[in-house]
Amino acid sequence: MTALALTKRLALAGLIAAGILAPALPVRAEDEALPTVHWSFSGAFGTFDQAALRRGFQVYKEICSACHSMNLVHYRDLAALGYSEDEIKAIAASVQITDGPNDNGDMYDRPGRPSDAFKAPFANEQSARAANGGALPPDLSLIVKARKGGADYVHDLLTGYAEPPAGVTMQSGMNYDKYFPGHQVAMPQPISDGSVTFADGTKATTDEEAIDVANFLAWTSEPELVERHRMGVKAVLFLIVLAGLLYALKRKVWAGIH
Amino acid sequence: MSASAKPPVFKNPVVRWIDHRLPVFSFMSHELNEYPTPRNLNYMWTFGSLAGIVLVIMILTGIILAMHYTPNSALAFNSVEHIMRDVNYGWLIRYIHMNGASMFFIVVYIHIFRGLYYGSYKAPRELLWLLGIVILILMMATAFMGYVLPWGQMSFWGATVITNLFSAIPLVGQHIVTWLWGGYAVDNPTLNRFFSLHYLLPFVIVAVVMLHLVALHRFGSNNPLGIDMKGPQDSIPFHPYYTVKDMFGLAVFLIFYAALVCFAPNLFGEPDNYIPANPLSTPSEIVPEWYFLPYYAILRSIPNKLAGVIAMFGAIALLAVVPWLDRSPVKSARFRPIYQQFFWLLLADCFLLGYCGAHPPEGWYVIASRLGTAYYYLHFLVVFPLLGLFERPRPLPMSIGKPVLSAEMAGSVAKTKVTP
């Protein structure tokens, strides 16, 4: 019996360890310890910090959007950042969108509307590559969901630029980044202290800009996150109560059996 | 308390009128109210009905998703994002469906290991078990093709790797792969047929589940003691006893499911699948969904491709022939002290294989997955047949209703049980 108990316990310990470790062991050898940021949207009760989202949108609009598209996000979605309808119309109208063909068969430019997707900086992949030394700046709509580490990855990449250590030979056109996998990234350092002047007066340090834009990109990846978390809390509480009631009912029905 | 054998009399005249011409109500009453169920089933027996409920959830959410999804290689990725962003509660339906696959496999794997522990596959339930394995295989095919539909990087490269397994077949392998793809690479025709089959197979699963239930109701459920019901004192009607017990089990299950969907919907997913499929760029590591990882580890543990493929499919085939590999006349592991230990070892082995399958095949992982594969085969081909010959089972109780026995009597019962 003791031998059995031991085998059972060992097996269970193994299962639990494997279960916990398997998803939590990203292979990230040789890199230095990553800085950790506390994100307001993490955890079951996590929610977006609207002020950070607006600052992050400003960083994206003024800096990132020069090269990176955001094809899955529409101007109308900005309502989630607290912009009014008129503000959104103004933001959308600040870009020219190619539309058409009109009744004469010609394409034409018109000011953007809230129903338009964010205007992409390049017409196609080829022109994006041609303007960026052959590298393709990825679309950022889903970047936080599409990278191991999520928002931390974005923050670390943006704040990890440094001089390459002695003995590291860089490929031409590449930049050294402490945290980027492989350390060589085609994107030159995009943000530094004072890259933007925040509309709300927040001091624009590199770290602040990186955190804010990572917040914004977390929102573009998961615009439903806040609603999802709220629904989860309600659903789980409801189900716990329901399970309790059903357990009482089960006890009652089975009372005569045992 | 025991299940009654009287034919049902319906109070409602409409029900009576219909039932006289189309006896669906008699059938339901027969299968629920009169269906005698062992009185001692534990919560491990809840997972069968849970699997059925998850199947229904998958079909319902899947039908809604198909209304908004576009199976075209140029549009598929964005159509999924359209569901996530623009369709009302599309994100909820999609996350329920996506995580439902994981929950389905969790439930079904527990259901299978419950069968292995309590010997539910033994005579006269061999066909019941075989139909279950058919469902498992259909589920795997359905899940694999469903994973391809969002047309992300892992969809595309997973489809490439898995379909390429068939190229290991001598002589005709490459032709079969071309035929499966509908071209010379995974492309739009592949996506189209996968969508078609992904919509079809769940209904095939429903049909096999029906057969699974017919086979189940022939002899009724096995039970933790693994001995037959000997009379009305051993059984209770399925309804209300097990309906209410299963309802409670369902509520607890839904707590976990809801938490997964709402708080960590991408826990089991790969970030790479949020990058659109790109045939020109291979991800650094191609990993299947977690429920395939043990098989993936078996596949990669063998250096020869054909042998690896055979070993992988063999692992499932062995599961199908367990009723004939296990020679012990005693069903429940409760009365099989040695088998019980090997059972936990097999479970641990499957987790070890799953762990190895999640990591690149190098160094320690190769050795571990080879040992794991070797044990898996050893368990089925050596342990199962030999234990039946050498293991001395503990004395079996007289009946479900009266499990207490004197030691002397117990010995004689065990003897009569062992020698058929």
Question: Which features characterize this protein?
Answer:
heterodimer; A: 258 residues; mainly alpha; two-stranded antiparallel ribbon; 5% strand; globular; B: 420 residues; two-stranded antiparallel sheet; 16 helices; disordered C terminus
Explain what this protein looks like in three dimensions.
- The complex is a heterodimer of chains A (258) and B (420).
- Chain A is mainly α and 258 residues long.
- Chain A is 41% helix and 5% strand.
- Chain A is globular.
- Chain A starts with a helix and ends with a helix.
- Mean pLDDT of chain A is 89; it is low at 15-30.
- With 420 residues, chain B is mainly α.
- In chain B, 65% of the residues lie in helices and 1% in strands.
- Chain B has helices spanning 13-21, 24-32, 46-68, 76-85, 90-118, 126-148, 153-164, 173-181, 188-219, 238-263, 293-301, 305-320, 322-325, 337-357, 364-390, 407-418; strands at residues 36-38, 235-237.
- Chain B has a two-stranded antiparallel sheet with strand order 1-2.
- The longest helix of chain B has 32 residues, at 188-219.
- Chain B is globular, with a radius of gyration of 24 Å.
- The relative contact order of chain B is 0.12.
- Chains A and B meet through helix 1 and helix 7 of A and helix 4, helix 5, helix 10 and helix 14 of B.
